[in-house]
Amino acid sequence: MAVWNSVNISYVLSKNRIDAEFYKEEDVELEFFLNKLCNGEKLKYVTKEVTERFNKNQCEEFQYNDIGNTDLIYGNVKENIIKSSEAPGRATFINNIDDVLISSVRPNRNANAIINENSYLQVGSNGFCNLRSNSLNPNYIFAFSKTKYFIATLVRATTSSMYPSVSNKDILNVPFFMPEANEILAISEKIKQSRKLLLDSQLYFNQATALLEKELGLDNSDLDDSPNKYISSFNDVIIGKRLDPEFYNPRAKTIVQRIKNLEHTTIAQNFYVKNGFPWNSKKFLEDNSGEPVIRIRDIKPTYIDKQNLTSIERNYANTITFPKAKAGDIVVGMDGLKYFYGSILEEDCMVNQRVCHIERKSPDSISSEYTTFIINSKIGQAQLLRDMTIATTVGHITNLNVAKLVIPIVSKDFHDNITDLVRKSINAKKKSKVLLKQAIDRVEELIEEAGTK
């Protein structure tokens, strides 16, 4: 059914756009609403574009801030250290702490970021509109950029249906809402604390990693590079039942041997190893309105946030008696090429096919935090990548590969220290998200309250 909206020709001429979708009634109303509410204030009046350009001769390595490495939930750019000699053409602008990066492609994804401290020189992609605050607290600017009003304004401005994008001019001309100074301060403080908790989360994880590497000798360089040539005995080939040379790379064999020299166990000795369910793909929803379900794309080396999952139709899910995975269980993606990560569940939810689901056999088993950490570590990934088989361009592992994964125990104190650090890392990240959401929600509440006056 066609939906009509009428606008004045002068309005059309002022926009220099003739595509009908641009003039949808709700979008036109939103523009008038924000223009009136913001009283002429725009993003360009509180920020300036970053102009200092990156030169490959400035350093040997740098932190590359690009859209692909931006966390869509937390708004931080993940570690992405690359050599200057291999710098992509988009690596353009020198970023400072607190710069706000607004994605100019697919603005509906809201891949906006605020820059945290990093020991490397930071370089921003020109796929972002790289902005620096003039004087306003940059944490508030970032919070505003994550609101539904900012997103809707940029989505409307997109051009090109195949690769929707906006210009820096579009971004800078977004109406900018300025509440009272005390509200700006309170919102900014929540964002500041959220960012600190995110850094704390990474610090706890790094401490756990350092502890593991020191205990197992993985901080030595002898395992960093795999040799180009190596020899395996015919007996190894018979036992391995594999002919691909990658399987016999001595790196994984050396790692496993180091583990076996210590007290160790396996996944199968401590967990039940299960499959996910082959849910009907036609029943999937691209939001969280149905029954949340874990798919391979949801598995990251951390925990599963149920609110970030896609879902399946609830009525359909209720007709299937397949049990949910429980809080504390672990899921491992079984398709990949460079990694096979594991995630710990914080809440009960459904599991899709090609996802391995493991459940603790008893409270006395090794902890789920410790196990997930080991799976995602060098020693876990080395084993899974060694066992991987490749069909066309995608690698695969099986439940058996997960079940026989060797896990070092070292000592109870070691196990408990790792468990504690991983739990602290997860809890800090969860608190970070809560504060971030509170800040964004408050900006939106203030906009809506101002609109009713």
Overview of the molecule:
The chain has 453 residues and is α+β, with helices and mostly antiparallel strands. The chain has two domains: 25-178, Adenine-n6-DNA-methyltransferase TaqI, Chain A, domain 2; 208-419, Adenine-n6-DNA-methyltransferase TaqI, Chain A, domain 2, CATH 3.90.220. The chain is 39% helix and 17% strand. It has 15 helices and 22 strands. The chain has helices spanning 9-15, 25-38, 43-46, 138-145, 148-157, 168-172, 181-216, 234-240, 250-260, 267-270, 314-319, 368-376, 378-387, 399-403, 412-451, and strands at 47-49, 61-65, 81-83, 91-95, 100-103, 113-114, 122-125, 128-133, 264-266, 271-275, 284-285, 291-294, 303-304, 311-312, 330-333, 335-336, 342-345, 350-351, 355-360, 389-391, 394-396, 406-408. The strands form six sheets. Strands 10-19-15-17-13 form a five-stranded mixed β-sheet. Strands 1-8-5-6 form a four-stranded antiparallel β-sheet. A hairpin with a 2-residue loop joins strand 20 and strand 21 (394-396).
